[in-house]
Design a protein that fits this description.
Blueprint (H helix, E strand, L loop, with lengths): L1 E7 L7 E4 H5 L12 E4 L6 E3 L5 E4 L5 H5 L6 E8 L4 E10 L13 E6 L7 E3 L13 E6 L5 E7 L5 E7 L10 E10 L6 E11 L7 E2 L3 E7 L7 E4 L2 E2 L9 E5 L5 H6 E3 L5 E4 L9 E10 L6 E11 L7 E7 L3 E2 L7 E8 L9 E4 L6 E5 L4 E6 L10 E10 L6 E11 L7 E2 L3 E7 L7 E4 L2 E2 L9 E5 L3 E2 L2 E2 L4 E3 L5 E4 L10 E10 L6 E11 L7 E4 L8 E5 L8 E4 L1 E3 L10 E7 L5 E3 L5 E4 L10 E9 L7 E10 L22 H28 L1
Amino acid sequence: GQIVYSIAEETECGASVGNIAKDLGIDAATLSARKFRMITGSSKQYFNINASTGALSVNEPIDREQLCELKSVCLLNYELVLENPLELYRMEFKVLDINDNSPSFPLSEYHINIPEFLSPGARFTLPTAQDLDEGANSVQNYTLSPDEHFYLEMQIRGDGSKYPELVLKKALDREQQATHRLVLTAKDGGNPPKSGDVPVIVTVLDTNDNAPEFEHSVYRASILENSPSGTLVVQVHATDLDEGPNGEVRYSFSNTTSADLQRMFSIHPHTGEVTVNGVLAVQRPLLEMLIEARDNGAFGMSSTAKLLVEITDVNNHGPEITITSLSSPIPEDAVPGTVIALLSILDKDPGENGKVTCQISENLPFQLKPSLQNYYSLVTSELLDRELISEYNITITATDLGSPPLTTQKTVWVQISDVNDNPPVFGADAFDVFVEENNPLGVFLYQVSASDPDIGENGRVSYMLRNSTVAGSALTSFLSMNLANGSIYAKRAFDFEQLRSFHFQVEAKDNGSPALSAAIRVNVYISDQNDNAPAILYPTSQNGSVAVEVVPRLADEDYLVTKVVADDEDNAQNAWLSYHLAHSSDSTLFQLSPHTGELRTTRSMRSTDFLKHKVVVVVRDHGDPPLSSTVTVGILLADTLPQALPDFDDSGEPPPLLNATNIYLIVSLACVSFIFAAFIFFLAVIRL
């Protein structure tokens, strides 16, 4: 938006101008938080804004004449920049003129030489006063102190400007009065009016009664602003009706022409050629000078003509790019249309030479949008992705419409800040972990790893085990994990015979806000170790006794005595079993199948064979190293199952005939026979 204020020059410090917050509809309480600032091209800060109330006041009195010189309208342009969000307001201050300058004359006194023989009505140019004020406050009229020989008359030049002339009212007599002292007063139109005086000393001469006359009262010329020194501007010409030295004319700049213009231009005293004398360092398109033509008479007479020089602009100023405000870095999730920078682009040349076009590269996610006059906003045109491009060097090209056009480039470095928009990513769909059983406690099993393309805290990944159960127990009783690097450790020794495999999930989470996460399945396979010896399932013994198998006394060859059955809880080759005879009381009588464990006779039994035998069977697995178990089998040769099994000693020899068992049997038989005989005898006695 734009707002215009008017203020009189020389307004004292602290005077109120307005309230910028109310005028622009801004909450005054937010000015400080939004980092407001006033931007101007002036070297002085003429105004202040109260950060708490938004009141706009004078910071330094303004001198309009010093600030704007001879411009009819004096304007001060300010920009008010607010951030969060970024806003720009343009303020224009129109400085009003007050009558604070009195008219003044370039010289402290003026001298006019008038021949005594001139007739009444002769005219003489008087100096014009200068007043730095404008309009009605500038010079409005002149007055001359009363004198019987002279009066004042205003004249109008061809361009409409007025100037005073001294008119001879009564013929002069040098012998009676050689000098006349007059006072010329210039008055402005202020209220109250101000005036300035200058003495005009008229010297009555006795010679040369014709002044040079220019062909034109106003000369006009046009030159390029980059014209080199020596370039001809115009040639003026004046004639003098006198003859001899009184008719020879010399040209010069009038004293009322400013010293700056007299340094920029030079005039040839004899030819009247006005040429460029230096660099035309002026900002005004029209220059005004007064040229004086004076003859060489003893009392030289003069006249003046106005020279108006129009400076034609040349495209000699390239555009100037100024970064008024820049927001960098910007978050990668900024929506299209987000304002990044505010640019001011100016060209000091007027007209078409000062018109500027501005553009940036088309392959960038940014665009320039015109804002206020001479301002552009650099905004995003599409979504950004820091993971693809983390920074941009944006080259802004400004070209004016001059011929040939001038181009200026400025590079803006914009960084893209990270937003947590990427979850961690694992390198595989699942991880397989292999571990041998009977592992040490705390052994390292595996390290999972996930990457996150974000940076900083948004890319810092931590790991954790997701809650689950394994074989009815909490996962945390089996495993532990390093949260920082994803290393997994065993908290207990695994037993292949109880648990052969299990799976769980690991969650990877970044440290952004809000945090993003991903999970992966980890399969744990437990490999077998040969840690279990074969278990003898049959034949079995109790309390350390020998297992006994009864074989018919006259069994045939290849008779199946028994089959040793064993099992191994290990797996694969650790559970492959083989059977071997470690000991046999008669190696020629029995044989053992190494694969099936069947114990068979190698021949038919003989009556001469011992009644009992003992064999030791070894069951061995194929582990490395192999483990084994043994079982002792007692073999009793009998046709019927005895009431009591005999003992089997280690020798395998037949026991003596009258061993403890046989004696027990004989005593038992005798007792039974005795009781039977006694019973028969008792019955016989009763009957008799």
